[in-house]
Design goal:
Rossmann fold, 5-stranded parallel beta sheet, about 15% strand, globular, binds 2'-deoxycytidine-5'-monophosphate
């Protein structure tokens, strides 16, 4: 079984559910790999991290104290969020304001863990994530930290994309164009993961979750390995 089975025209399990849940830490290459898998398999795509980022933007915009968990939870319920579910289009808007670029800025990255560790807000975002999966007839690549375990534990394919700390720091550093010091980078990557892992365990694979270690793989190889895992899980060895 090789990933070559999945050519550009291949529709896998036509008409049947195919949720591919991909969890992993920052800098594991999760977003770019998940998008590419969705494109190749013609599946919808959901970046759940973008939803936590959008909620952070919304709270900051409305002067909500991020340590006030009741207020953050309420914000999660009323936020009018629009998020693209097509891998080829990145688009996030709140109440018609395009915040696609804004949510990637350092002020959001630095604050997002506060929001992501607010359990009431998680409950609401998880509800919205499940709704989006259902709206796409359960044919979607969904990436985040708790997709394999909480959001979609019944997904047809569940994988944990990992990479060594060194590889993750290197990739994030390249992504940011060398504009950050080593300390800033380490705080962003490992510091944030440490905070986030207080509420979600995304460093160990749950039962039935396949580990894909991308430390020594380039992008193409990682996509190939992910497709191979999909093939094995769907069609058997
Ligand atoms: O993947 P990312 O950096 O865009 O995620 C943003 C934040 O949201 C990060 O602090 C982890 C958190 N997150 C989460 O707790 N659960 C998810 N399913 C996705 C992201």
């Amino acid at each position: 079984m090789t990933h070559k089975l999945f050519g550009p025209e291949q529709v896998v399990r036509p008409g049947k559910p195919l949720v591919i849940a991909i969890d992993g830490p920052s800098g594991s290459g999760k977003s770019s790999v998940s998008k590419e898998v969705a494109l190749r398999l013609k599946l919808a795509y959901l970046d759940t991290g973008a939803m936590y980022r959008a909620l952070t933007w919304y709270c900051l915009e409305h002067g909500i104290d991020l340590t006030d968990s009741a207020a953050v939870e309420q914000a999660s319920e009323i936020m009018p969020l629009e998020i693209s579910t097509a891998a080829a289009t990145e688009y996030v808007a709140v109440n018609g304001t395009d915040i696609t670029e804004e949510i990637r800025k350092p002020r959001i990255s630095e604050a997002v863990s506060s929001v992501a560790t607010t359990l009431g807000a998680r409950t609401e975002l998880i509800r919205r994530q499940r709704q989006l999966i259902d709206q796409h007839h359960r044919r979607m690549v969904v990436e985040g930290r708790d997709i394999t375990t909480v959001v979609a534990p019944g997904a047809e394919v569940r994988m944990l994309l990992t990479a060594s700390e060194e590889a993750r720091l290197r990739r994030r550093g390249l992504q940011l164009g060398g504009t950050q010091s080593a300390d800033q980078l380490a705080e962003q990557v490992t510091g944030r993961d440490a905070k986030d892992s207080t509420v979600v365990n995304f460093t160990q694979a749950a039962d039935g979750v396949v580990i894909l270690d991308s430390s020594d793989l380039d992008f193409e190889e990682t996509v190939g390995a992910a497709l191979t895992i999909v093939g094995k899980v769907i069609y058997g060895d």
